[in-house]
Specification:
Distance between the termini of chain A: 58 Å
Helix content of chain B: 25-40%
Largest interface: A-B, 70 and 56 residues
Protein name (chain A): F-BOX/TPR REPEAT PROTEIN POF3
Radius of gyration of chain B: 29 Å
Radius of gyration of chain A: 25 Å
Structural class of chain B: alpha+beta
Shape of chain B: elongated
GO biological process, one term (chain A): auxin-activated signaling pathway
CATH class of one domain in chain B: Alpha Beta
Strand order of the largest sheet of chain B: 2-1-7-5-6
Structural class of chain A: alpha/beta
Largest sheet of chain B: 5 strands, mixed
Oligomer: heterodimer
Number of strands of chain A: 23
Subcellular location (chain A): Nucleus
Main location (chain A): nucleus
CATH architecture of one domain in chain B: Roll
Distance between the termini of chain B: 88 Å
Keywords (chain A): Auxin signaling pathway, Developmental protein, Nucleus, Ubl conjugation pathway
Number of helices of chain B: 10
CATH superfamily of one domain in chain B: Phosphatidylinositol 3-kinase Catalytic Subunit, Chain A, domain 1
Largest sheet of chain A: 21 strands, mixed
Order of helices and strands of chain B: HHHHHHHEEHEEEEHEH
Number of helices of chain A: 21
Strand content of chain A: 15-25%
Strand content of chain B: 15-25%
Chain lengths: 580, 204
């Protein structure tokens, strides 16, 4: 007698699923069986699409009818460094148009490296009555007109975050478009805006939004007005100042210091353009409570910088320019025992000579003094294998390690050897490493280490490294969890790529520029792998006008269920299908 | 598999082994591609990342002495800027670049430090017509008095003395050489405490 297997009532499973929010877990749930797939898709509220061309909006809408939050990423990461020509793609409009029809109750849209037009912003502003959060990270293509539409129409807006975006801003008046009755703002990040915003509108807005926790200003907000804003929002948790300089006047200073003292909840500081050091002590009252300090744009140097940082004993995240030098990093290591993330940026990246005394020693000090260190981005001009080995031993919990030695192919400056052993130690000791960026002189050997040990690695960035296809083969065949691989200026060619073609379907994307992959290999790959989009980017003109074995300029390969895209500009060719 | 045939994988013999041994064989067999593997600069003909430095040349020979000669290794040691390197965000790059170019095009900027002051300043020497103007500006900037300069006794009667580092790396007293010679040889300025400056202005 067949007995129907007892199963949970759907409502119970739905209830259980409401506690499962991580994308990975949700995806796993959907694979258990058909009924779980169905139940899960009807109650999924948020979706993350890591590559907007991997799927068509209609497919997302068909599968997930009840979404409230959509997150999309567009251009490949190397677009940040000018390697992706303008006009490449990543336009969000088709998505916005589709979402507008399908999800009138949509609340959140988060976009990264996408081209967002004013028209898209207008559609967002008018289509979603309950719209709450808009995050435009490293986006471009819109102006303050689009922002004005959002301000004027999104009555329940809680967050507007324009981090790192490029905005055409002819008018600073868009902020005034928030109606006087609008009081729901909790987060505002306008740090990327070039022009002034209307200060009085800003002050009124800040004053009437009691839930405002995050306020990142742009450099045009003058220091002498900052105190007004702070007094209007003493509940702030995250603050980005504007320009941090003014003529030193005792009353301005004491006003500012008093205002900072009133912000008892402040945990994160950023901004600090054009610092006049005389005003730095105004922030000292909040330093002991800070967990995050971003001085990436701050021209503070020497003793001023060290004094500021060393007062932030609770610091977990520090972003700073290399003005901090080895000596400052030693102090950091002594004072900030909770540090988990350090980013040191170059103050003079194109100078031929070092302008500061920042070497491998600084990073070693931090690894010695900060046992919780997990994430590092470090620009420097010299490195040794010994230092990397030490860092690896000191920081076995490292999950993200990005080292940029400014001179390409720079060897260990003491032994003149490649840095293979040093990075090998990193991947061998840091067993949870998810992200790695290499630099310096590196042979195929480093890739052998990576393929052997970096079993949790998800993203790898490679430049000016390796000797042969063997290097690429080690990575593609060894790194089981590899999701994104980006390579520039390496002698990798056809063989490793074609031999590991199946691997590419298990990854989000592969970028190769200034390598040695031939047009012929690209065509082959495109023809044989229908679930990959193989796109050649070549500004020299059509690749079939050159010999087949000629290397392509740039190659972007990504898995997709959407087929070849329709919006390619003239310098991008798809290798899929018969058209090749 | 079909495309494996096209590849002649047996000919390329991909296998794990010490770098250098496998590559030598595969690079010899991939004759048509070998030039491509080495001249990955084809698409960027005016770009050359190599820079001078015998140490780098040595290290490359140490790690690749069994490879065929590369175009790269014989390239002249010109330092050119590589697109997208170092990997910093483009709009930030524009900011930094613009500031640098502005400064360099406009004037003759030198750093000025004063003993006891917590930070440096930068001034444009081209702006001043002579020593009196320069000294006045420094006095205002750092709130001190330089005193009266005389060739024989240097700066008399002041707690602070303006000095500069010249092209040879020597510390000189500001005012000793003609103005034009000064602005062409001055690398940076330092306002020393009078006690430290002794020995600098004395007639020899």
């Amino acid at each position: 007698m067949l007995r129907k297997a007892s199963s949970f009532p759907e409502e119970m499973l739905e209830h259980v699923l409401s506690f499962i929010t991580s994308d990975k877990d949700r995806n796993a749930v959907s694979l258990v069986c058909k009924s779980w797939y169905e139940i899960e898709r009807w109650c999924r509220k948020r979706i993350f699409v890591g590559n907007c061309y991997a799927v068509r909006p209609e497919m997302v809408i068909r599968r997930f009818p009840e979404l409230r939050s959509v997150e999309l990423k567009g251009k490949p990461h190397f677009a940040d460094f000018d390697l992706v020509p303008d006009g490449w793609g990543g336009c969000v409009y088709p998505w916005i148009a589709a979402l507008a029809t399908a999800y009138p109750l949509l609340e959140e849209i988060k976009l990264k490296r996408m081209v967002v037009s004013d028209e898209s912003l207008e559609v967002i502003a008018k289509s979603f009555k309950n719209f709450k959060v808009l995050v435009l990270s490293s986006c471009e293509g819109f102006s303050t007109d689009g922002l004005a539409a959002v301000a004027a129409n999104c009555r329940n807006l809680r967050g507007l975050d324009l981090r790192e975006s490029e905005v055409d801003d002819p008018s600073g008046q868009w902020l005034s478009r928030f109606p006087d009755s609008f009081t729901s703002l909790a987060s505002l990040n306008i740090s990327c805006l070039g022009a002034e915003v209307s200060f009085s509108a800003l002050e009124r807005l800040v004053g009437r939004c009691p839930d405002l926790k995050t306020l990142r200003l742009n450099h045009a907000v003058p220091l002498d007005k900052l105190a007004n804003l702070l007094r209007g929002a003493p509940q702030l948790v995250e603050l980005g100042t504007g320009a941090y300089s003014a003529e030193l006047q005792p009353d301005v200073f004491s006003n500012l210091a008093g205002a900072f003292s009133g912000c008892k909840e402040l945990r994160s500081l950023s901004g600090f353009w054009n610092v006049f050091p005389g005003y730095l002590p105004a922030v000292y009252p909040v330093c002991s409570g800070l967990t995050s300090l971003n001085l990436r744009d701050a021209n503070i140097q020497g003793a001023d910088l060290i004094k500021l940082v060393s007062q932030c004993r609770s610091l977990q995240r520090l972003w700073v320019l290399d003005y901090i030098e080895d000596i400052g990093l030693e102090e950091l290591a002594a004072c900030c025992k909770d540090l988990t993330e350090l980013r040191v940026f170059p103050s003079d990246p194109y100078g031929a000579e070092p302008n500061v005394s920042l070497t491998e020693r600084g990073l070693v000090s931090v690894s010695e003094g900060c046992p919780k260190l997990q994430s590092v981005l470090y620009f420097c001009r010299q490195m040794t294998n010994a230092a990397l080995v030490t860092i690896a031993k000191n920081s076995p919990r490292m999950t993200c390690f990005r080292l940029c030695i400014i001179e390409p192919r720079a060897p260990d400056y003491q032994t003149l050897q490649p840095l293979d052993l040093g990075f090998g130690a990193i991947v061998e000791n840091c067993k949870d490493l998810r992200r790695l960026s290499l630099s310096g002189l590196l042979t195929d050997r480093v890739f052998e280490y990576i393929g052997t040990y970096a079993k949790k690695l998800e993203m790898l960035s490679v430049a000016f490294a390796g000797d042969s296809d063997l290097g690429l083969h080690h990575v593609l065949s060894g790194c089981e969890k590899l999701c994104k691989l980006e390579i520039r200026d390496c002698p990798f060619g056809d063989n490793a790529l074609l031999a590991n073609a199946a691997k590419l379907e298990t990854m989000r994307s592969l970028w190769m520029s200034s390598c040695s992959v031939s047009f012929r290999a690209c065509k082959l790959l495109g023809q044989k792998m229908p679930r990959l989009n193989v796109e050649v980017i070549d500004e020299r003109g059509p690749p079939d006008l050159r010999p087949e074995n000629c290397p392509v300029e740039k190659l972007y390969i990504y898995r997709t269920i959407a087929g070849p895209r329709f919006d390619m500009p003239g310098f991008v060719w798809t290798m899929n299908g018969d058209s090749v | 598999m079909e495309f494996e045939r096209d590849l002649h994988l047996d000919a390329t013999e991909l296998r794990l082994g010490l770098p250098g041994t496998a590559t030598k064989q595969s690079s010899e067999k991939q004759k048509p591609n070998s030039n491509l593997a080495k001249s990955n600069k084809r698409s960027l003909p005016d770009m050359n990342e190599e820079s001078a430095g015998s140490s780098r040349e040595n290290s490359r020979t140490v790690s690749s002495n069994d490879k065929k000669s590369h175009d790269q290794e014989t390239a002249p040691p010109i330092k050119a800027q590589v697109v997208g390197w170092p990997p910093i965000r483009s709009y930030r790059k524009n900011c930094l670049q613009a500031k640098k170019l502005e400064a360099e095009a406009a004037g003759l900027y030198v750093k000025v430090s004063m003993d006891g002051a917590p930070y440096l300043r930068k001034i444009d020497l081209k702006v001043y017509k002579g020593y009196p103007e320069l000294l006045k500006a420094l006095e205002e900037m750092f709130k001190f008095k330089a005193g009266k300069y005389s060739e024989r006794e240097g700066y008399n009667g002041s707690k602070h003395v303006p000095t500069y580092e010249d092209k040879d790396g020597d510390w000189m007293l500001v005012g000793d050489v003609p103005w034009d010679m000064f602005i062409s040889s001055c690398k940076r300025l330092r306002i020393m405490k009078e006690s430290e400056a002794r020995g600098l202005g004395c007639a020899v």
